[in-house]
Amino acid sequence: MYHIVNDIESRLANRIKAEREVRGWSLGDLAERSGVSKAMISKIERGESSPTATLLGHLSGAFGLTVSTLLARAEGTMSRLVRAREQAVWQDAETGFRRTAVSPEGATAIQLVCSELPPGASIAYPASSYAFIHQQIWMLRGILHFIEGEETHELRDGDCLQLGSPTDCRFENRQRKACTYLVVVASHR
Asked: How does DSSP assign 111-150, residue by residue?
């Protein structure tokens, strides 16, 4: 079963601030690199606002990290084995999007992320969040419309898509029930 880390929001706020500070960036520097306003970043770092999946995409891209790596660093577990009941789950309060870190936190070359997108939900990510990784999406259940630049891919149970060159993209669930998919992320750094 899923285990939701109670203080993940607090740890995520601290991690975002730590990532910014270790780079010697001001709030303005991060805002400029990510396209997220200084005021919003400040609210997130102070724990006054929970970042959406889209905002995490912008922030992680600015840091040169995957969303999975940023969340894993916030979760702070280091082990080669992670039991199903211990896999960290993060949920976007705005869309209901649910992300489960399947891979152990220390996994750097390949990361597995199980995602569940509620009916009618849509999440956009900027090209910068894909600039340093390779990804494949494997549909487990339902129908996902993945918009990659100008191209739309309709993915159904068992379909697997290798993402192309970095471009702005959007995950959409146009159905009346949730869709579940596995994202495989490989770093090419």
From this structure: EEEEEEE-TT-EEEE-GGGGTTEEEEEEEEESEEEEEETT
The whole-angstrom separation of Cα 68 and Cα 102 is 10
Q: What architecture does CATH give domain 8-73?
A: Orthogonal Bundle (1.10)
| CATH architecture assigned to 80-187 | Sandwich (2.60)
Dump pLDDT digits (tens) for 106-155. 666 788 999 999 999 999 999 888 777 899 999 999 999 999 999 999 99
CA 28 to chain centroid: 23
β-pair partners for 69:
none
Query: Tokens in use for 51?
Result: 């970042």
Angle between helices 53-63 and 38-45 (to 10 degrees): 100
Domain ranges, ordered by start, for the chain: 8-73, 80-187
- pTM of the full predicted structure? 0.69
Please tell me the number of Cα atoms within 13 Å of 135 on its side-chain side. Answer: 24
Identity of residue 64: G
CA separation for the pair 74, 66 (Å, rounded): 13
17: helix, coil or strand? helix
